[in-house]
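Lab channel / #folding
Pinned by the channel admin:
"Please post every new chain as: sequence first, then the structure tokens as a reply. Keep commentary short and put observations after the output so the thread stays searchable."

First post following the new format, from NK:
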Amino acid sequence: MGFAFRNAWREIRNNRPFCIFYIVNLTLGLIGFISVDSFKQTLDQKVEAESKELLGADLAIRARREITTEEL
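Reply from TO:
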């Protein structure tokens, strides 16, 4: 394991512009991923909060499997 860290440190030290470029790209990717996930959670919460208006009904039936007409 020590060899891997020494080798990685040497590469970082010898190639600073690439290292900075890599860190900036990694940071932007993580920020994008977190932003999209946050937007998804906010959208899910908003749809859940307004589901009655969006559904347009007084009663909503949910099931894990398909409901047959006999069960209705």
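NK: Residues 2-55 form one domain.
TO: also worth noting, The helical segments are 2-14, 16-49, 51-55.
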